[in-house]
Each structure stands twice: as C-alpha cells, then as structure tokens.
Amino acid sequence: EADIYQTPRYLVIGTGKKITLECSQTMGHDKMYWYQQDPGMELHLIHYSYGVNSTEKGDLSSESTVSRIRTEHFPLTLESARPSHTSQYLCATSGQGSSLTTYEQYFGPGTRLTVT
Amino acid sequence: KNQVEQSPQSLIILEGKNCTLQCNYTVSPFSNLRWYKQDTGRGPVSLTIMTFSENTKSNGRYTATLDADTKQSSLHITASQLSDSASYICVVSDRGSTLGRLYFGRGTQLTVWP
Questions:
Q1: What integer pLDDT is reported at residue A101 of this predicted model?
Q2: Residue among A31, A105, A109 whose CB faces B42 most closely
Q3: Which chain A positions have a beta carbon within 8 Å of B109's beta carbon?
Q4: ω before A8 within 30° of 0 (cis)?
Q5: Which of A10, A70, B60, B74 gives 20 to 30 Å between its CA and that of A53?
Q6: Exposure b/e, A60-97, CB count within 10 A at least 16 = b
Q7: Nearest Cα to A108, choosing from A13, A14, A18, A29?
Q8: Which helix (DSSP H) or strand (DSSP E) does residue A81 occupy?
Q9: What is the distance between the alpha carbons of residues B55 and B32, in angstroms, rounded to a whole number?
Q10: Gap between the Cα atoms of B18 and B13, Å rounded
C-alpha cells in the first residue's frame, strides 16, 4: 500500500544532541517536502526536493539539513538540537502528472520533537 | 503579501449539528484551493481541491465552496460526528510555480461534543 512513513513519531532529546528524522515513502513520488508546525500555527516549508540529489531550502529559515540519495528516502538532520527546535515536523510528497496531480500533497504522520 | 485567513479560530458544536468554516485568501495568481483535515498528532489529509472554475465540491458530508471573485471559500460539514473533531486547514496554491507553492491557513479547531 502506498504510504509515507516517519520515524520516530515522538522524540525527547537534550540540547546539543545530533538527531535525524526519517521520512520514507512508497508513493513513487519525485517531490518531497519537510514542514514545521507549531500548535495552532500554519505549516511552514523548511526543505524540499524535486528528486534524487536535489534539495532546496524552503521559506522558513531552518538550521536543519536534508539529503536525497534515494527517491524514497528524505531524512532531516539537526546537528545540534536546541529548545527552539521543539516542534512538529511533517514530511510530504507530491507526484508528477497533470497539474492538479502535481499540486496534490500527501502528508506523513509527523514527528513530535521536544528538546530539553 | 500572500495570505490565507481562517475563521473562526475554534468552534464547538453538538453531534449531529451542521457547521460552516470560512477561509479568505489574498494569494495571487490563484491556482487551486484545498481543504485538509488534521487530526491531533497526525498529518493533514486532503478533503477537497478546487480550481478557479469550480464553485462547489463535495466529499461525503463535507461540501466546499469557492468564490474566486471575492477570494473566499467555505467548508460546510453536515450532520457532524465525534470523529469530525480535528483542525481544518485551508490551503491555497499559486500559479506559475513548478513547486506548486502552497499557502497555509492556521486552521479552525473543531470540537464535536456528544
């Protein structure tokens, strides 16, 4: 079944630690995205990728980095976590095809990160 | 500045009742507007997507309307159920971007009481 997987679902970690949030998909989509969402606030795009070896920064400045070595995998890394990084991180994909299909985004379940 | 504003911020209704959520946007050029449902602790799930030429689109008990002239949309929920409790997010996409740039509202938090 086509799906988007994010691990871990919840993470509590101390300041200064390096963390990697995993996102994998079996949707067969080229485009992948990372969003950051605080409670009651809108989603902010922090990174996106058009395909393998393609990564771009989004609208919201982020200290995280991403990589896209395989089509199905788009991990996000924080080299040194800080309390300001506490948030929910959502991974999404969108597929090629008609313009409407291209614009349709599918979201993973999210990772709730807490940095103490 | 491209923006998406939603109202009300939160809403409480009794099970079985109807409700309407509002979305106003200033995104230009306009490509499409979509409504997502986001359960607590989960990712958003698409309910409807409408282009410029579409005025109404239904998905079960959810009916979305779009007035591209006034840049307003509404999401009407009929015969609400407890499982409708969630955040409903209005998202507008602009035209001319290969990325399909999305502008997100902050959502309306709907709570359905028994």
A1: 46
A2: A109
A3: 40
A4: yes
A5: A10
A6: eebebebebeebbebbbebeebeeebebbbbbbbbbee
A7: A29
A8: none
A9: 11
A10: 8
Q: At B7, list the tokens.
A: 């109202």
What does the alpha-carbon distance between residue A46 and residue B98 come to, in Å, rounded to a whole number?
17
CB A59 within 8 A of CB B1: no
Query: In 3D, which of B19, B23, B18 has the Cα closest to residue B7?
Result: B23
Measured CA angle at B63 (ends B59, B65), to 5 deg: 130
The pLDDT of residue A100 is 52
Contact B89, B36 (CB under 8 A): yes
| Single-letter residue type at B65 | T
Closest listed residue to residue B69, CA positions, set B58, B55, B57, B56: B55
Residue of B nearest to A108 (CA): B43
Is some CB atom of chain B closer than 8 A to the CB atom of A49?
A: no
Are A43 and A35 in contact by the 8 Å Cβ rule? The answer is yes
Task: Assess contact for A22 and A72: CB atoms under 8 A.
Answer: no
